[in-house]
Every structure is written in C-alpha cells, then in structure tokens.
Design a protein that fits this description.
0% of the residues lie in helices and 38% in strands. It is an all-beta fold and 130 residues long. It has a domain at 8-14 and 22-69 and 82-115: Immunoglobulin-like, CATH 2.60.40.790.
C-alpha cells in the first residue's frame, strides 16, 4: 500500500474500552490498495446492517456497529460472542471520491470500497515528437 494514498489508523483505533455498560471492541481490519481504489475489510461478527453506521467526515472514516446479546435457548456454558460495540477510525487521504464509496456486510465481514478520484490514479504521459 502506498503511504501517500492508503488509509491510516487514528490513535484511538487501537484500544479496547471497557465501561460499566457495554464493552467497545476494535475490529480487526485489512486494508488493500490498487490503482483504482482502497479496499477495507473488517470483521464484525454478529452485526446486522441496521446496527452498522459508517461516516466520512473531513477526511476521517468512522465505522461503528452494535452487537446485541442473543437470547439463549438454555443455560449458557460458554459465551464468547457478547454484546458490545465495535468502533474504528481511519484517516482517509485526499482524492478519495466520497460520493462513490460502497459498503457491503456479508457473513460478519464488512467490505468498503473507497474509489480513487482521477487525480490519485496513476497515468501515463504521452510524449510527442518534435
């Protein structure tokens, strides 16, 4: 990933915050870059699309999701998927076309496509003779 174009984490994106009410988790994310877009893939197990909010504001991309507790059909022996919030922020480089960002949540995996504007895309300069 090119440093000048790729997403970078904000300082707050690293920690797990435990409060008296709900824990907040930092979801693991992978970021890929090609000449046309930056692709962000985040694991959000147990999250539904209506419990997910994605915002882009002044160069900062924020992903926030809520996972609610599930009703157990019996006595709980082990519970690893607890209710809680997911929160992650990234600094987005200039040149990302915010109007064309697309998000998909499938099987607990969020995929965000952040298309580059033409100014960020590599291009070949034609040389004229003479």
């Amino acid at each position: 990933m090119a440093r000048e174009a790729g997403l970078s984490r904000t300082p707050e994106s690293q920690s797990l915050v435990q409060s008296d009410q709900r824990p907040t988790y930092t979801p693991p994310c992978d970021v890929f870059e090609n000449q046309d877009e930056i692709l962000l893939v985040a694991d959000l197990p147990g999250v539904t699309p209506d419990a997910l909010t994605i915002n882009l504001d002044q160069g900062e991309l924020t992903v926030h999701a809520r996972r609610e507790a599930k009703q157990s059909p019996g006595n709980v022996s082990v519970m690893e998927y607890r209710e809680g919030d997911f929160h992650r922020r990234f600094a987005v480089p200039r040149g990302i076309d915010g109007n064309k960002i697309q998000a998909q949540l499938k099987n607990g995996t969020l995929t965000l496509h952040l298309p580059k504007s033409d100014e960020l895309k590599p291009r070949e300069i034609k040389v004229r003779a003479g």
